[in-house]
Amino acid sequence: MSDLDTKTFIDKYAITRKGTDSLKWDALKERFGSDELLPLWVADADFSTDQVVKDALVKRVDEGAYGYSIRSADYVASYQGWQDRHEGTQVKAEWLIFSTGVVQSLYDLIACFTNEADGIMIQTPVYYPFFNSIKDQKRRLVEAPLLNDDEDYTMDLVKMEELFKAKNIQLFILCSPHNPIGRVWTKDELQAVLRLCQTYNVRLLSDEIHSDLVVHNHTFVSALTVAKEVGFRDLIVCNSPSKTFNFAGLLHSHIWIPDEALRTQFQKWAKQHRQTEISVLGQVAAKTAYQSSDEWHQAFLQVIEENYLFIKSTLQEAFPEITISPLQGTYLAWLNIESVLAGESVKEFIQEKAKLAIDYGEWFSPAYKHYIRINLATTPDIIKQALKQFILAAKQ
Ligand SMILES: Cc1ncc(COP(=O)(O)O)c(C=O)c1O
């Protein structure tokens, strides 16, 4: 339990975002065709970041000069401290490369480490920019669908091995924890995956942006930890403080490349294609949060878990046929709502009847067209209102 209880957290940090040029709140007309929807889609939070982070940003803003910045020596130390405290991951300063975001990093890493028509594997359903980053760059998309046993999702290692053998795959992009199904992969699962990659010479890119968003009885294990244990060197990890502390708009994320030859290859590529500088405010915010926002983070996780449990119990009581995948990590709930549809499409039900904006299952895989993804990083009041609208729509 955090010393900051959820009520105090919500009172202190819940904010009105409508009218702040928020993608989630202010782009509803553009993205969904109507301003009249309650938004539970794109993955950022309806809470301000920790007060200490805001204070550090205000202090830095007050200095007035925002010229080019260097990577500060204590940045990496504060990040290493956080990783060590929260997940037992040991990272070395020299492995770190800054980026403006994880999606940008995916595009860059694919461009650097693969060629047109190379095979890249992903596990579907998965965060849709994975598809785009492969297809936009004319790489060959290879899907290894997750096994779904009544919303209990596991990796299909047999299928993956078959595909590794048959499809000439250069890169496997792992989502860990997995968006949208909310799994936190266990050490055993990760070991099995890394061993497969090792056997078939497949480079592994692990997107760990949700690594800090793990509910209390689960433990996140980084691919960096497992790679060290199994002696696997062909690994790149992307992560970021942006989901953890709600500052995606500060455009600051990490790429970790432990292997020196791979790192040099990427640096050479970046010199020709990607001359980005460091986000001054991103670095200030992240350094402060990694040093001091443990309590804020703990309370944030509690709010997410309480919202999840509330949705689950309310919907299970009203509509027992709706299935909700167990939430181990991320702040995203994944629901199959086929049973409440009365002949209409999910989109008609969600937008026209329930007046909600959510992420549609088909964005993550065409096989999941009856699913929706709900963003839990909001206030219980908004979750209650959304459920009210959903239940009313289902009873129409
Ligand atoms: C798995 C995953 N990767 C990357 C991102 C986006 O990262 P960024 O905003 O740093 O590009 C998200 C956002 O939802 C995500 O879920």
Automatic annotation (TrEMBL):
CDD domains: AAT_like (cd00609). The keyword Cytoplasm does not apply. GO terms for molecular function: cysteine-S-conjugate beta-lyase activity; pyridoxal phosphate binding; transaminase activity. It comes from the Bacteria. Residues 77-388 form the Aminotransferase class I/classII large domain. It is an enzyme of class 4 (lyase). Keywords: Aminotransferase, Lyase, Pyridoxal phosphate, Transferase. InterPro entries: Aminotransferase_I/II_large, C-S_lyase_PatB-like, Class-II_PLP-Dep_Aminotrans, PyrdxlP-dep_Trfase, PyrdxlP-dep_Trfase_major, PyrdxlP-dep_Trfase_small. Its cofactor is pyridoxal 5'-phosphate. Its EC number is 4.4.1.13. The keyword DNA repair does not apply. Belongs to the class-II pyridoxal-phosphate-dependent aminotransferase family. MalY/PatB cystathionine beta-lyase subfamily. This is cysteine-S-conjugate beta-lyase. It comes from Enterococcus italicus (strain DSM 15952 / CCUG 50447 / LMG 22039 / TP 1.5). The lineage of its organism: Bacteria, Bacillati, Bacillota, Bacilli, Lactobacillales.
